[in-house]
Amino acid sequence: MKGSLKNLGLADAVSRIGRGGLTGILSVQGKTSAISAHFLGGSLVRSETGTQTHEEALLSMLLEAEAGVREGLEAAMRTHAAGGTSLADALLDEQALSAKELGTFLHLQTTDTLLDAFLWTNGSWTFEDDADGLKASGLDPIPVDSLLSEGRRRADEWPIIGGRVSDPGQCYRKRRPIDEDAGETGMGPTEILVYTLIREDRPLARLQWLSRLGHFETCRAIYQLLDAGFVGPVQMSANEEPGAVQAKWAARSGRLTHAAATLVLLLIGLGSALLMLRRHLDQRRTAGLTAVIQTDDTLQARISRNQEARIRAAIAVYRLHTGALPDDLSQAVDAGVLREDDLRFPLHQDPYHYRRRGDGDFDLLRPIR
Questions:
Q1: Residue 254: inside a domain, yes or no?
Q2: Which end of the chain is more exposed for a tag (fewer CB within 10 A), N or C?
Q3: Are residues 238 and 273 in the same domain?
């Protein structure tokens, strides 16, 4: 099956999948973004974006929300990377967070990724039966009925909300207190929760996970708070670009550096490649390191894949915190999510080729020898 996103075309696709009890992968391509959603018997079990896997998105959310025990998170990453254990099971086994809290974040990540695509008006979707390629997330299957009603509600409200609140790098300040009469002004529990979390150095991108509400509901709450005059936007100076306030906040608090912990999985993968390298060196002690890499295509490919994955994940973390892709990879180095050595293929002087595209994505190519 395939179709267009015009006229709530995605809602039609999800409805057909649910009614038919279909199993497979729904791929959605928007103007600048893409997602994939996995369905089992007509229910949603996993979703991820074109730039972040489900696991990377979940780890980013946990770090942004300051959820769980950091030592437990890192131990869970190592356990999952070693193979044989899902990330959800590893998080519980290492007591990184409670089953209830994990369920909250799994549900939020899975549903928000798909529901955000309901707001896209340009693009297309395709659905392929693919039981073999299906991946579960550790979440109980989510029936499509609730997704459809929520997706339509968001599509109706977003043109108004998104015109005023959408920039992930925007920070807000409290203008007046919410007191016991807040209910009379239309402020409910959601608005009050977001109000308590608002700080002048805390951008929308972080508020959405700290609140455990996700992007749309946090934007909706802020819209109501703005409309009632309880909060106001932090104004950027004339020479600041969008996202600059958020970048300053990240630099001050050290969050950007801490968020690089989301790369632990990739570092472990790179470590396994280096372990393979050491084994090769043991077998070929008379050969130098350069000769080993240059003469072994399999080893080159393994190291390259892991290093490219590390760079891509670092770019994702950078965008998460600044609201934009880096103009060049040196900005990711300056932000602390990459090292200068990471930019070069092992024992090669030329850096990886990075280019920021006009469609909101980027190209990353290994240097040509």
A1: no
A2: C
A3: no
Nearest CA among 317, 320, 101 for reference residue 212? 101
Same-domain status, 312 and 197: no
Tens of each residue's pLDDT in the chain, 369 residues? 899 988 768 999 999 999 999 999 999 999 888 999 999 999 999 999 887 778 878 887 887 787 777 778 778 877 877 777 888 888 888 888 888 998 899 999 999 999 999 988 889 999 998 777 666 666 788 999 989 999 999 989 999 999 999 888 889 999 998 875 555 567 889 999 999 999 998 889 889 999 999 999 999 999 999 999 999 999 865 445 544 444 444 444 444 434 444 444 444 444 444 444 444 444 444 344 445 555 556 656 666 666 777 788 778 777 767 778 888 888 888 887 777 777 776 555 667 888 887 767 788 877 655
Neighbours of 295 (CB within 10 A): 12
Q: Is residue 253 part of a domain?
A: no
Query: Which strands, in side-by-side order, build the sheet including 123-128?
Result: 2-4, 123-128, 24-30, 34-40, 43-49
Q: 355: helix, coil or strand?
A: strand
CA angle 316, 45, 102 (to 5 degrees): 65
Q: How far apart are CA 308 and CA 349, in angstroms?
A: 16
In a domain, 159, yes or no: no
| Bridge partners, 123 (sequence order) | 30
Other CB atoms within 10 A of residue 238 CB? 5
Which of 206, 228, 248 represents a domain boundary (last residue)? 248
Q: Is the dihedral of CA 258, 259, 260, 264 positive or negative?
A: positive
Domain count, the chain: 3
Instruction: Give residue 155's region: left, alpha or beta (phi > 0; psi -120 to 50).
Output: alpha
* Structure tokens given for 270: 């790179």
Give the range of the structural domain holding residue 220, as residue numbers without chain letter: 172-248
